[in-house]
Structures are given as C-alpha cells and as structure tokens.
Amino acid sequence: MQYEISLLTIMGISIIAALSLNLIVGFCGQISLGHAAFLGVGAYTSAMLTKAGVPFTAAVAASMLMAGIIGTVVGFTSLRVREDFLAITTMGVGFLFLGIVRKQDFLGGEMGIAMIPDPGLGKVGYLVLVLLLAATLALFSIYLKRSWMGFTFDAVADDEDTANLVGIDVSSYKLIAFAMGTAFAGLAGALYAHNIKFIDPESFGFVESITILSMVVIGGTGSVWGVTIAAGVLSIFPMWFQFIDDYKLLVYGGLLCMIMLFSPDGLSGIFGRFLNTIRGKNFNASGQ
Amino acid sequence: MLFFDLLVQGLLQGGIYALIAIGLTLVYGLLRILHVAHAGLYTLGGYIAILITNATGSFTLGITVSMVSVGFMGMVIYRLIYQPILEKPPFVALIASIGLFIAMEEIYRIVFGAYGITFADAPLQGTLNIAGIYLRHCEIGALLLAALLITSLSLFTRYSRIGIAWRATVTDPGMSQSFGVDVIKVRYLNFFIGSAMAAGAGSMVAVMNNLVEPTMGSVPSYKALAIIVLGGLGNVRGTVIAALIIGVAEAFGTIYLGNILDRDSIAFALLILVLMVKPTGLFSKG
Amino acid sequence: MLQVNNVTVVYGGVTAVMDVSFKVKDAEVMGLIGPNGAGKTTLMRVITGTVKPVQGTVFLESTPLEGKPPHKRIRLGIGLSQQIVHPFKSMTVLENVAFVAGHGKTGHPVMSVFRHSRAKEKQKAMEILHVLGIDKVAEAKPENLPLGYLKRLEVARAIALEPKILLLDEPLAGLNQLEARQLADKLLELNQLGHTILLIEHNLGEVIRICDQLVVIDNGMKIGQGEPHKVMDDAVVRSAYLGEGHHAAS
Ligand SMILES: Nc1ncnc2c1ncn2[C@@H]1O[C@H](COP(=O)(O)OP(=O)(O)OP(=O)(O)O)[C@@H](O)[C@H]1O
Ligand SMILES: [Mg+2]
C-alpha cells in the first residue's frame, strides 16, 4: 500500500508538471525545452523557506510566485526571438539554472538539499492534496481553453502575425502563458521537494525537461485529457515494471521520435481520428 | 604563460565545437531543422574510430572509416527521419530529433556498456613543446584536422561546381531550384559532409580522452545549438567564429568565473546575453 | 479620417515608396491603384505599422499612429484585409470571424480569462458571413476552401472588427466576375451605412464603378489623384497602365 501511495503521488506531481507545460506549449504554441528549471526554482524556494521555518502553505505559494516571476522574465526573451531561437533560449535557461545552482553553497551546491521538512499531512493526506491540485489544474485548463483567453491562445499559436493584425496584443498573451505555466511548474516542483525530501540540481536537468515535454507531446499538445493520461502513464510505467526502468530513456526517446513521425498531434490525435473513423466521418489525416 | 595556455586550450576546444557545429548550421540553413541528433553521430564517430583502430592497429584507418561511415549514417537519418516530416511545423522535427538523440545514446549504452570503451593502445600521446606550451600530438592533430576540414569546406563551396550549387541552396533553397540545382542531391551531400566532420571531431576527442562514453555527445550537442544561434543560424563563418569564442570563453571562464557559474553553462549565459542585445545572433545578416 | 503624409519606405536600399501623401475623407471609398510592384501593399503596411517608413507620418482621425504597434492601431479603428490570405487554420470559417468579432473580450488580456460565452459573437459572425455570401462554408476549415472564399473571409474578419476604416488589399482577386461584382456591391452598401473604405484593387472596372476618389501610384510615386474618370483620362496614368487603362475606360 505504501508503495502504491508513493507511486500515485509521483503520478499526480507529473500530471501537474505536464499540464503546466501544456499551458505554454500546447495552448499558446511557444516551445520550451527548459521547463524543469522552473520546477527547480519552485522546489528550491519551498525547500529553503520551510527549512527556515516558513509554514508549508506559504512556502508553496511563494515558490509559485518565484517560478512565475522568473518565468515571466524568460517570457520576455520569447518576445524578442523567433521560434527556433526560443527552443534554444529556453534550453539555455535550463542549463543556466543548473550551472548557477551547482555553484551556490547556500543552495547546497552539487550536493543539493536534504531533510526537507514534511508538510505533516501523512502519506495519504499528501497524496490527496496532490491529486486535488492536479484535478484543479486539469479543470482550470479545460475552462481556460473555453474562455476567450484560450480562444486567443489558439489564434496566437496558429499565426502570431495575423493575430496581431486583428488587434491582439500577442506579447501580453504570451507573457501570461509563460507566467501561468511556470507558476504551476513551481507548484509541481515544491510538491516534488516535500514528497522526496531531497533535491539536487540533477533532479531538474535537461532530461527532466524533455521527459515533461514528452508527456505533453505524446499526449497531444493542447489536449488536457491526452496530456493528463500520458503524464499519468509515463510517470509510473517505468516504476511499475522495474525492467523497463533500465530502458526508460530508450522508450521515451523512441516514442518521441515515432509519435512525431506518425502522429504529431499525439495520442489525442490518434484517438480523435479513431473516433472519426468509427463514426464514419471523413477525416483529414494531415495530423495538423 | 597561463594566458597562452588557456588561449590554446580554448582554441582547441573551439575547433572541436566548430567541427560539430558546422554540420548543425548547414542542416539548419538547408532545411530549417535543429538537428539535435547530430551529436549522436559525433559520439558514433568516436566509437567507430576506437573499434577500427583496436581491430587494425591503424588510427588513420580508424578515423577514415569513421568519417565515411558516419557520413552515410547522416544521410540515412535524413532519409528516414527528416524527409517524411519536412512539411510539418518546425517543432515536429526538433522533437523527433531530440527523441532520436536520446534513443541513440541509450543504444550506445546498451551495446557498448555504460562506462564506455578505450583504445587498446592510445595513439598520438607524445608531447611537444611549442614556445613553452606543452601540447600532446593528438591535440595538435585535432587543431590541424579542424583547420584542414574547415579550409577545404570553404574552398569546396567556393570553387567546385557542386559546392557553389550547395552554397546557393543553403542561402536560398527556393531560388536555386529554379537555377536547376538538384536539391535532393544537395541535401544528401549536406548531411554527408556535416556528419563526417562531426565524426572527425568525435574521433579526435576519443583519442584526447582515450575514452568514448554513451553520453559524450550530450553537452556538445546543446552547446553546439547555442553556438549556431550565436553564429547566426545557417552562417558557416559566423559559426566557426562563435565556436572559437565559446571555446576561449570557457577556458578563461573556468578559471575566472569558476565559483559562480558552471563551465558548461558559460555558452548559454553568453547566448542569452547576446540575444537580449541582438535577437538575431552575432553574425546574422539581418 | 485617414491621412498619409510624405511617406517614404526603403527596403534594404531599394526605395519602394517615395514621398506619397493622400487623405481619405469620412464615409468615402478611396481606391488606391497602380501596376504590380507599385508600392500599394507597402503603403498599407505603413498604415498598419508592420513596415516602418524612413520618413512620413500617418494619422487616423487626429491620432498620430507613429510608434504604435499594429494591434493598437487596429484597435483604434482599422480593419485590415490582406492581399495574401492568412486565415487561422486551426479554426473554422465561423470561428475565424467570431474570434475577431470578440475584439471587446480580447482587448484586456488578463480579463479575457473571465469571459467565455461565444454565442453573441458567433451570431454576429454568421450575419457577416451571410452578407458576404459565404455562410454555406461556415463550419469548414479554411484549408480546403478555394481562394475566392478565403478572400471574402479576410474581408469578413476586417468587418467583424467594426472599424472606422476598412483597408482592403485586393479583396476581389480570385473571385469570378459575378462574385466580384456582388462583393463590390456589398462594399458599396457598407459604404452607404457609413463605413470608410480604402480599396487596393486591380479590377479597374469595379474600382471605377464604386470608388469616389482614386490615388494612382507607380514605381513608389504618386502620379495621379481625383475622381475616377478624370484620373483614368490622364495621360501619365494611362501610359503607366499601358493597355489596362484602355480596357477599363472602354
Ligand atoms: N519585404 C520586402 N523586402 C524587400 N522588398 C520588398 C518587400 N516587400 C515589397 N518589396 C518591393 O517593394 C515594391 C513594392 O511592393 P508592394 O508589395 O508594395 O507592391 P504592390 O503595389 O502591392 O504590388 P502588387 O499589385 O503586386 O500587390 C516591389 O518592388 C517589391 O518587390
Ligand atoms: Mg500588393
């Protein structure tokens, strides 16, 4: 039972992380290859604060704020560079985060931070909290998609220049996407820190960024259900079957590559086409 | 003396980066794809060089076989991975490429083991004293190889017929088609040359470290991306200059910035600084 | 309404527009014509702010547009229909127009998250599609539609902004003769309802029929202005237009 509880907790945290990235990549169409850094910002903030005696709730709120602020700053770069550059810039931010944290003694350097305080909710209580937050974020995402903000994100993701020429303040919308996405990443990071109780720079490296991105892409960028399911399955799959753990990265890498080759809109795209076929509708197989 | 030591080490590292980054920037110029998996070929180059050298005792043969076979491997990747998705939005190819790169590293780990392989008898390990700076033969070899390959590339694109066609295509893919350039042939050539150069770099690094590990390409891969952006994507000369700058900046940065910034993130710090000031990179036309 | 003063545009050393000035009065249909490459689209871009002139100013009513980003200019009351169609490909035709019709709901980025009803905008979009005769394809994705429909979709979006002035860059291109005539009639109707229109168009027959005033540019320079028939009789204009002028006048 203990083991299942910890698996489900990790699953919930992964779902929050993936849904947070989905706000940026899926909804607003801005590629980000350094998302784990914002989980890192959240995790470090919350760990440092709770160790200094700040209550759990306040520390988590502060970690969201901190990650959101830094995310907005990174968002500003996104306004200045075009798409291909953005991929590399966000990746650079990820590496920069690692490079800086590794050298800061007050953040524990390479050794990281251990003995992060327990929030005192008990294992089950913490699991419930994580799942509730994940569900809230999923519902919020669904609402967002239907709101006029989501409508505008669609337009921005589709064609920025045209959105601008129908009166959309594209820059502000992009910044909002970055601010929201990175703040929720901060939440995921804080929850991770208080679950594992130990963090080090490597927990938020490039591979983690790509892992989160694979969840979004494999689920189907922009699809809340697809991303939630993909995050849930991909996060616990390797742990369930220990033998897969050894080949986890091979599976991730291979899946990423295959999905892009055969169905760039991910599982939700495959599912949608499947539904269309059984309903007998004709469909457009272009994948876009 | 420390100054010159650092400078030479920086240029050496920069030369290696340049060999890797040229292939990347060529692919970008031609297809607008960020070919992350390129560094997987660099690693593969190292493996093949060691395997062939150990089997035959000749490093010259090792590096030659490595460059040629990896060159073909690059063409295979283009054919199987990129060609089918050229028409899709750019992030599709980027993510496919990242996936491929991760999978390649994992395959190396599974096939050759996690701890990597070494030369049975590492070549070019003697040292030479040039004006007070000690360099190993392999380091001199790497510098020479970088200089040789980059110079021949620039001569090739300037004076040979197919080279000129190639350059025209990289500058303006649409334009050259109307001048009767065989775009498909140019793409294969592009992947062959870029991948072969990366394999050359991988082989030399294999000798210098006397080791090839599955993850040898990770750091250079991402750094090379930073370099080609600094160089103004698609611009070969800019890329070479940016590579040398990053190499030298790292050599000095490790000494002078060592306790605030990790060596491997210097390139990205520089990248972000430059993009803040000039969003199109250091050497872009625009 | 709209005032363009001494605008000069240089593209990397090549002068595309040279010291052009003109005024569009309230409730007027102004035609901006000239041979291919004359600089018409460039002038349009100067007005919307996607191209910076090296010299010159643009005023909408009495507001100077200089230094304002495109989206702010649009929201001051400019509705743009581009020469090269740019539909949002992920949306249906109806959604394309409804999205723009919701300009009041997207104006404040943060507040947009609190608004979710799309019913009114869809209804309004449907009306506009109906007026332009493309309501049959409301639920279609733009990808599969012929150019004539996409051109009218561009115009529909421009109208959905409820602008003070419509800037239309070759809206009739890609339409057959009948469709062109119908759309031109619609533009006239809109004009009679009080809309000001700046129309770039190669279809001189329709231009002469519906425009109150013409500005002719050639090679980046203004070579004529005035009432359509007078302008088209001008020797300079006729020679710039070669055969085209004769065809239109006949
Ligand atoms: N982005 C650009 N960069 C460089 N030159 C440009 C650019 N856009 C237009 N030009 C040039 O500026 C001149 C004016 O172009 P413009 O598109 O304004 O003409 P136009 O009057 O709209 O022509 P058409 O009737 O064909 O649409 C042309 O010579 C064109 O080649
Ligand atoms: Mg034009």
Outline the biggest β-sheet of chain A: none
Q: How widely separated are the two ends of chain A? A: 43 Å
Q: Count of DSSP helices of chain C?
A: 11
Q: In order across it, which strands form the biggest sheet of chain C? A: 6-7-8-3-9-10
Which structural class do the helices and strands of chain C define? alpha/beta
User: Which architecture of chain A per CATH?
Assistant: Orthogonal Bundle
If classified by CATH, what would the architecture of the largest domain in chain C be?
3-Layer(aba) Sandwich
Describe the model.
- The complex is a heterotrimer of chains A (288), B (286) and C (250).
- With 288 residues, chain A is mainly alpha-helical.
- Chain A has a single domain (2-287), classed as ABC transporter involved in vitamin B12 uptake, BtuC (Orthogonal Bundle).
- Chain A is built from 13 helices and no strands.
- Chain A is globular and about 55 Å long.
- Chain A starts with a helix and ends in a 10-residue tail after the last helix.
- Chain B has one domain: ABC transporter involved in vitamin B12 uptake, BtuC (Orthogonal Bundle), CATH 1.10.3470.
- In chain B, strands 1-2 form a two-stranded antiparallel sheet.
- In chain B, a hairpin with a 2-residue loop joins strand 1 (127-130) and strand 2.
- In chain B, helix 5 packs antiparallel against helix 8.
- The longest helix of chain B has 30 residues, at 2-31.
- The mean pLDDT of chain B is 88.
- Chain C contains eleven helices and ten strands.
- In chain C, strand 4 and strand 5 form a beta hairpin.
- With 250 residues, chain C is of the alpha/beta class.
- A six-stranded mixed sheet of chain C has the order 6-7-8-3-9-10, with helices on both faces.
- The longest helix of chain C is centred in the C-terminal third of the chain and has 16 residues, at 177-192.
- Chains A and B meet through helix 4, helix 9 and helix 12 of A and helix 4, helix 9 and helix 11 of B.
